[in-house]
Amino acid sequence: MASLRPSSVKLSPFSAITNSFTGFHRNWLSLRAEKLGRVDNAWLRLSPSLKEKSVLRLDAWIISAGHAQELKSFKIQNMSISDGRVDFYDKMKQRFLSFKKHKYMGEVEHFKTLAEVQSPKFMVIACVDSRVCPSNILGFQPGEAFMVRNVANLVPPLENGPTETNAAVEFAVKTLQVQNIFVIGHSCCAGIQMLMTMQDDENPSLIEKWVGNAKVAKLRTKEDANHLSFDQQCKHCEKESINCSLLNLLTYPWIEERVRKGTLSLLGGYYDFLSCTFEIWTLDFKESNAVSHGSKLSVKDRVFWC
């Protein structure tokens, strides 16, 4: 009987979840022990094989009788979740059909051309944050911008090796021949907040390793804005990290060459969704080409939209 005691069973942190999904209450072992406590002393006189069979039958009785209501509640709850998912899928369906009717069918020839070839003028590097979709904010239309999104809209330097981001940049520059690379940051960026608070760790998380690409922006923020509040420091770092990414782009020879010739422009943008304002600027290559010496970025044509 010792093997039936609840204390002898080690449950994982996910036991409450998995047991619920299989129809078992997470305290079913306790319930079983409670039921078994009511068994007649004749139990002790049963042979081991009969005891095992009896326990299995008793378990089945407890589950069927004691958990019927719980299973019913689970089914109702699961049905509610499914209904919500269906409602959202239905919304997506309606949005797609609206796009097809009003956008696609109205510009069929344009979309047929796009099916054959794309010639975007912009390469956009933006954050994965769900609140800052560049196509919604800046109105990019299909075929206008080749886009990659990552945590905190970062561009690692060439020396850091291959990533999804620089692979996309290489394709945009070498194959699509884009004329502009546009790095867009935003307010209240969780990636930058993590960068500003994280400590050196022997076992950093994947996110910590990634935002570490902007460590220079953090150091410059601590130098320039250490007297400000934490929120203000984060906002300063959000903009500084954009400039660091623009400088990192110059570490790629095929980008630096095109910027030097004037066939490629590097732009920074900052969207503040708290005030719904947008700031945009262009890298001044003549003043910033000492990147190898760690100089700060020089910009020109700074514009503020509000």
Number of helices: 13
Mean pLDDT rating: 81
Secondary structure tally: strands: 6
Shape: globular
Query: pLDDT under 50 segments (min length 5)?
Result: 1-40
From the N-terminal CA to the C-terminal CA, the straight-line distance is: 74 Å
Main sheet record: 6 strands, mixed
Based on secondary structure, the structural category is alpha/beta
Q: For the CA atoms, what is the radius of gyration?
A: 30 Å
Strand order of the largest sheet: 2-1-3-4-5-6
N to C succession of SSEs: HHHHHEHEHEHHHHHEEHE
Helix content range of the residues, please?
40-55%
Taken as a percent bin, the fraction of beta residues is: 5-15%
Q: How would you sum up this structure, described in words?
A:
The protein has 306 residues and is of the alpha/beta class. The chain is 51% helix and 13% strand. The protein has a 6-stranded mixed β-sheet with strand order 2-1-3-4-5-6. Strand 1, helix 6 and strand 2 form a beta-alpha-beta unit.
